Amino acid sequence: MESSAKVRGTGISKRNIDYIEEKILNGFAVIALTLDNQWAGFCYIESWQSDAYIANSGLIVAPEFRKLGLAKQIKEKIFELSKTKFPNSKIFGLTTGLPVMKINSELGFEPVTYSELTQDQQFWNGCKSCINYSILENKNFKNCLCTSMLYDPSAAAKNSNAKFATKKFTF
């Protein structure tokens, strides 16, 4: 993840191998493999504030599998896994990448200010290894280069119900 972020010039927090292994072993990760078991991509779930907030983090696609729609498939799988494991939690992500923003929007995420994300200091400490951390710190953790996007299941349910309650118009 770290080397990919450096090549692409994006900010991504460094995670140690034990942390990633724990996510995989506990069923909090999506791993994409080819039919011949070649690693193709990955994403994992983190929970914050007693599971009130869930982050979909560490999305990575191997260079040879980029621009094939794999990132979208991984995001869809991690989103479904997040909703299954934490049905009442707000799900969020931080990204500097337009493709991820588009995928998140298609999944029902909306851009929000950082104040709507978890305020758990452990989460923000995880940003320390990002190349943009000094910007975040200088802005008192209120914004950075990443766009914050949030999926709120209660808002999604209201929006779903509102579709059926709207008036019909003719033009």
Description:
The protein has 171 residues and is α+β, with helices and mostly antiparallel strands. The chain has a single domain, classed as Aminopeptidase (3-Layer(aba) Sandwich), CATH 3.40.630.30. The chain is built from 7 helices and 6 strands; from the N terminus they run ααβββαβαβααβα. The chain has a 6-stranded mixed β-sheet, sandwiched between helices. α3 (70-85) packs across α4. The longest helix has 16 residues, at 70-85.
User: Biggest sheet, in brief?
Assistant: 6 strands, mixed
Main-sheet strand order equals 1-2-3-4-6-5
List low-confidence stretches. Answer: none
- Form type: globular
Content of β-strand:
15-25%
Helix share, percent: 25-40%
For the termini, the CA-CA separation is 51 Å
> Would you count the extended β strands for me?
6
CATH superfamily: Gcn5-related N-acetyltransferase (GNAT)
> Number of helical segments?
7
The radius of gyration computed from the alpha-carbon positions, rounded to a whole number of angstroms, is 17 Å
- Residue-averaged pLDDT: 89
From the 3D coordinates, which CATH architecture would you assign? Answer: 3-Layer(aba) Sandwich
CATH class equals Alpha Beta
Q: By helix and strand content, what is the structural category?
A: alpha+beta
